[in-house]
């Protein structure tokens, strides 16, 4: 069953002005319930524009966006519910923090939903646990936190609405590798606990390879390809033609293969490469009778 279906979506900025620009061009897309889709593509390929349609922040110039089989624009009174069900974390969400305490900032969304104080409290605590915010920190001013922690608070604020579809626009941009991995693991944990569908826009092939199950490649406003991680990365040559590269470790393994090492073709993460190399080393050990 598809939670989101995008039918022939086109979006143009600045219609009727000299700056008119088709940012999303006849996109068809089906997101199965519970999927984890990584969205990659160059700057300007239409990723942010596309995802802003999925919770009704942008209205299609042409085409439809369906949530659970219903056009989200069919009944405007329903849009509030759509925004609660499809949570969107913008790029650099830390700039949208404004409350006096971390607790209040995370509670802002659930409060808007009209939940009881008890429920709000329970949700803030649960989500704080998922993103690693201590009880102590909940009472601090968010403005005293580090950049990475602020971003966590902002992500937690969207998660606290318990969206069934969680969309994140480059949530790891500007963070160091450890900060990146932590946030991605927290997203995994949210998914595990809630069964939510995840859409992750990312610049990093490595991050997408490690966490997503499907990849949507956008190119010049169109879907270049949309398939499993394995099948998308098996098209390395085509990706290279549009200036995108498969993960670095995939290229390293390809070079090793060319040099005669019997290493699998489907290696996308350092962990997979490590396993393979250890296996080969062990086999070599056995062959030598060690
Ligand atoms: N607010 C806007 N007004 C006019 N053009 C825009 C606006 N936002 C984005 N664009 C243009 O739309 C295209 C797609 O942009 P965007 O969706 O932000 O791509 P991405 O997120 O992949 O970088 C780009 O050519 C960009 O310049
Ligand atoms: Mg963008």
Assigned CATH architecture of the largest domain: 3-Layer(aba) Sandwich
Radius of gyration: 21 Å
Number of structurally distinct domains:
2
Reading off the top of the CATH hierarchy, the class of the largest domain is best stated as Alpha Beta
| Biggest pleated sheet | 6 strands, mixed
The portion of residues assigned to helices is 40-55%
Strand order of the largest sheet: 6-7-8-3-9-10
Extended strand count: 10
- Per the CATH scheme, the topology name of the largest domain is Rossmann fold
| Cofactors and ligands | adenosine-5'-diphosphate, magnesium ion
Could you characterize what this model shows?
It is a single chain. With 290 residues, the protein is α/β, with parallel strands linked by helices. It has two domains: 2-246, Rossmann fold (3-Layer(aba) Sandwich), CATH 3.40.50.300; 247-290, no CATH class. Helices cover 42% and strands 22% of the residues. It has twelve helices and ten strands. It has helices at 47-54, 79-85, 102-112, 117-131, 135-138, 147-159, 177-194, 205-211, 229-233, 236-241, 248-258, 270-287, and strands at residues 2-13, 21-32, 36-40, 62-67, 70-71, 86-89, 165-169, 197-201, 214-219, 222-228. The strands form two sheets. It has a six-stranded mixed β-sheet, with helices on both faces. It has a four-stranded antiparallel β-sheet with strand order 2-1-4-5, covered by helices on one side. Strand 4 and strand 5 form a beta hairpin. Helix 3 (102-112) packs across helix 4 (117-131), helix 3 packs parallel to helix 6 and helix 4 crosses helix 6 (147-159). The longest helix is centred in the middle third of the chain and has 18 residues, at 177-194. The N and C termini lie far apart (52 Å). Adenosine-5'-diphosphate (ADP) is lined by residues 13-14, 21, 23, 41, 43-49.
